[in-house]
Design goal:
Helix content is 43%, strand content 10%.
Length: 516
């Protein structure tokens, strides 16, 4: 039975808040009290996956494939795929676009597939104390499942853990205020999810979580200034490193301990310092892992904080007959939106018509201008260089600014999922002095939005983004397989891949451009 996705059903679990702080070497911190151990204990808890959670996991596997195939011939996915092709392995994992009779080392398949998933910034999201794309857990877990012959149910179990851990770390530990990239929460979640899927003991998962966190902590410069292609590689790199960490720990190796609480650990020297105290919520043992239901996907290919504002631009367009009559546009929004993708970032690249796609997708000024003019947002057309350079768009773009509003900041950090808001209020002042004002709290596709995404929407997104690249027969094969995930055999799990026609897949062969 699949329950309605309401706040009551999403949160009908017992969550315990775990205090996490720095301990000096002289203090006695029992291993069982370390956060990494608690994550490992959560990972080994054999609680069944609820039907509605399983249903959403299947949706997100479809979603990942949609955006990966849409990006398949862009430079970062092509480069990552070329590297993966240099690491063939009989009985390994599949790579998006490549025929299923070709397999590769799991860590390299995860690298290629994770980069393709992340390239367009178009898959699922969770925002709280920090932010994340928890669908980044899927490529490393799927690759390991394929290589080690895991069933569909075992893959489901692992993904429920991966989502649970990453989302709850994001609820409670802010990375971006310390300029640390959000993939530092992905390394531990992917390692723990793999541990669940493989049925590893808590000791092994504990060590793998510590190693994974240690090696996936990096700065946010990848999302600042002239944003480069590394933004697409960062999560797949974390997934690859998580696989490698689990492999080492399965061989008996350990990690730096205690990684969170140690006097030279992450909290003391990378996050808020030795005096900081964090409170991390986790389900009690025996309680369902349901955090995935608090996450949401994207209808539009752009940074999540822009989703509601894109929908709002479409609505406000109907009230404007002449864009040249606009004198000024102010977007009142949250602290995070203002300082990360708004004018509060103080980043001139966000106003640059020649900026990279990655930069434009992190400029709400550009996004709102194009959405307002076009009444659509397209993952290709909206980012074309000639679209960004259009003179009337540049004029409108430079009339837009953002401002932090305390109310929207409060709503952005609400702990009640039904009160969370990621949108804003827009005031368009015309040259004649009149003002057009409107606001939207959440995107139409959000759980609480006007048109919440359901299975048919995920399927529509998949068919739309793969049209012209993948045959209808291949679309149907993949969709049928994923929607039967809980009953799939290990051999069927190895077929969870979208194969492109040879004519549509560029860089389908191993090249000699690099080292591999």
């Amino acid at each position: 039975m699949i329950l309605p996705n309401t706040a009551e059903n999403r949160t009908k679990i017992v969550m315990k808040n775990h205090t996490v702080r720095t301990y000096s070497s002289k203090e006695n911190l029992a291993r069982e009290d370390e956060l990494a151990w608690k994550l490992g204990a959560l990972a080994v808890d054999p609680v069944p996956v609820d039907d509605d959670v399983a249903d959403m996991i299947m949706n997100r596997i479809i979603d990942n494939a949609s955006v990966a195939i849409a990006a398949i011939n862009r430079s970062p996915p092509a480069a990552a795929r070329a590297q993966a092709l240099a690491h063939p392995r009989d009985g390994g994992a599949t790579v998006f676009g490549v025929a299923n009779n070709q397999q590769f080392d799991a860590e390299w398949a995860a690298w290629a597939n994770g980069t393709a998933v992340r390239e367009l910034d178009y898959h699922d999201t969770f925002l709280a104390a920090d932010y994340a794309h928890p669908g980044d857990n899927i490529p490393p877990l799927l690759a390991v499942a394929q290589q080690l012959g895991k069933s569909g149910q075992e893959l489901l179990n692992g993904l429920a853990t991966g989502y649970e851990i990453q989302i709850n770390l994001v609820r409670s530990i802010c990375l971006h205020e310390h300029k640390i990239d959000h993939v530092a929460h992905l390394g531990p979640s992917a390692a723990a999810g793999i541990g669940t899927m493989l049925g590893l003991p808590v000791e092994t998962i504990y060590q793998a979580v510590q190693q994974a966190l240690h090696v996936t902590t990096s700065t946010r410069q990848s999302r600042k200034g002239e944003i480069s292609s590394w933004k697409a590689f960062a999560p797949s790199h974390a997934g690859k490193l998580a696989i490698e960490a689990v492999d080492r720990c399965m061989r008996g190796e350990g990690g730096p301990s205690p990684i969170y609480e140690g006097e030279d650990g992450v909290i003391a020297w990378i996050l808020s310092g030795p005096e900081a105290i964090y409170s991390v919520p986790l389900p009690e043992i025996g309680e369902s892992k349901r955090a995935i239901l608090d996450s949401f996907t994207k209808e539009h290919s752009a940074e999540y904080q822009s989703q509601a504002l894109i929908d709002l631009a479409f609505r406000m367009k109907e009230q404007i007959s002449d864009f040249e009559a606009i004198d000024r546009i102010v977007i009142q929004t949250s602290h995070h939106t203002h300082y990360v993708i708004g004018t509060g970032a103080g980043d001139p690249q966000k106003m640059n018509p020649t900026a990279s796609r990655e930069t434009l997708d992190h400029s709400i000024m550009y996004i709102f201008a194009v959405a307002l003019q076009d009444g659509e947002w397209h993952h290709i057309r909206s980012y074309l260089p000639e679209r960004a350079a259009r003179e009337d768009t540049v004029r409108l773009w430079n009339k837009i600014e953002t401002a932090e509003d305390a109310e929207w900041t409060t709503r952005y950090h609400e702990t009640d999922p039904d009160k969370l808001a990621f949108g804003g209020r827009v005031e368009i002042t015309l040259k004649d002095g009149s003002v057009i004002m409107d606001e939207l709290a959440v995107a139409n596709a959000h759980t609480n939005g006007a048109r919440p995404f359901a299975r048919e929407n995920y399927i529509h997104k998949f068919r739309t983004l793969t049209e012209g690249l993948v045959s209808v027969i291949e679309q149907d094969r993949f969709l049928d397989l994923v929607q039967r995930l809980p009953e799939l055999t290990a051999e069927e799990v190895r077929q969870i891949n979208v194969v492109l026609d040879v004519a549509t897949l560029e860089s389908a062969a191993r090249d000699t451009k690099g080292i591999f």
